Amino acid sequence: MGYRAILGAITGCAIYLGSLYAFQRPFREYPGLEYNNFPLPSDWDHEAEWTFARLMYPQYRFQGFGYGSTNWQRGNSMWTQDYPRADRHFSRAIRRLSRIDARSAEQPVNLDDGDDVYNWPWL
User: Fold this and answer.
1) From the DSSP assignment, how many helices (H) and strands (E) are in the chain?
2) Which one of 18, 22, 24, 74 is separated from 63 by 20 to 30 angstroms, measured CA to CA?
3) What is the tens place of the pLDDT at every residue in 67-88?
4) CB-CB contact of 43 with 95 (8 Å)
5) Which residues contact 91 (CB under 8 A, 6 or more apart)?
6) What is the Cα–Cα distance from 86 to 106, expressed in whole angstroms?
7) Mean per-residue pLDDT, 4-28
8) Is 0.85 topped by the overall pTM?
9) Which carries the bigger pLDDT value, residue 86 or residue 14?
10) Cβ proximity of 106 and 35 under 8 Å
11) Long-range contacts of range 12-15, CB-CB < 8 Å, 24 or more positions apart?
12) Bridge partners (DSSP) listed for residue 107
């Protein structure tokens, strides 16, 4: 490989990594169906190589029956079932049982927020 190809590859990698960090969103926590006072871990703002993402989705209602609030984007919906307790236990297990640098707090992801979700560092 020539000098220009190596320099181009390094520049491309730097631009790619810079764009990944530019699209990070702040940590958000929503009210859950079961757990609302679960403690926030001390490393909730730690920039790690792996973060558990929970997909937010609309509530399905069958003839008026359903659980939680009608606005699924504010929590208290079925996507918050066992949230955030299960996410934080799973992330802690990943940290303990592997060599992955995992953040102990989850990140809820709403696909309606735009195309930025596809540029997040954990994808």
Assistant:
1) 2, 2
2) 74
3) 555 677 777 778 888 888 888 8
4) no
5) 51, 52, 102, 103, 104, 105, 106
6) 10
7) 67
8) no
9) 86
10) no
11) none
12) 53
CB 38 within 8 Å of CB 88: yes
d(CA 30, CA 74): 6
Q: What is the 3 state secondary structure string of 57-84?
A: CCCCCECCECCCCCCHHHCCCHHHCCCC
Query: Would you mind telling me the total number of residues written for the chain in this entry?
Result: 123
The residue type found at 20 is L
Residue 49: pLDDT over 50 = yes
CB atoms within 10 A of CB 76: 18
Chain centroid to CA 22: 15
- d(CA 92, CA 105) in angstroms, rounded, equals 9
For 22, the token pair is: 């530019």
- C-alpha 33/C-alpha 100 separation (Å) is 30
* Token pair recorded at residue 43: 């490393």
d(CA 120, CA 41): 22
